[in-house]
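User: Structure tokens for this complex, please. No commentary.
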Amino acid sequence: MNLLFDFTVDKSTNTIHITREFAADLDLVWDAFTKAEILDQWSAPKPWKARTKEMDFREGGRWLYAMVSPENVSHWSLVEFIRIEVKSSFSSRNSFCDENGNSINNVYSLTRNSFKAKGETTMVYVEKKFDNLAALEMMVAKGFKEGMALALGNLDEFFLTVVPTNEKK
Amino acid sequence: MRRDIFQAIADPTRRAILVLIAIQAMTPNAIAEHFDITRQSISKHLRILSECELLAKKQEGREIFYQLKIDKMKEIDAWLDQFRKMMEESFQQLDQILYTIKNTKK
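Assistant:
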């Protein structure tokens, strides 16, 4: 199946727009974006792993999770839920934080995820807005480190190179 | 000779070195401990990364620490492209999970 994926950036408003189609019904896709046990399975790009510490999916609640590197280094992120319309959309404030959810740099982005059933598939729209270009740049510096492992390409090789030597210690 | 960044990341050991020093500054010895290769070839990889302007050097006492020079890769467009790839990969993992869940439900 050919699933739509669209990613555009509007630099004048510091906003990233993502559209993605999934081959599942709305109920299941909604669960995949809102339940920790499913989020942990996909939201970190390989070889990172997402590990949820707290998930309280309701308006005013929060999701505290770590992206764990192959060397077992955790980078914590906090998602604070602002508004939730069940099986339609939810918005959140996102930040990088320590393991207790305290922001490490007072830089935040706002995200809105919307869901729409489309026959057999479900469309998801993600809108990510940064306060200003400086905020985006700070996210860049930090996000770059987290995305680094992935960004550098074939990480199966990375696993082979790094993991065995860590076991030796 | 000026090298380009693609040359730097073409090699799996150099990619692994970049991941290590992205997290913290390290001495060549500390870097070498992570690999099963000679100290000499680690030096060679560090030299290539340095020629690609990816390494920031910092002297502390007798030790030299290497850290990733983010400036070089900090251009927003480059990062956005990585971010797009990251999202794409995560979503592909989700495709697999959705497929698995749908099939176990049947």
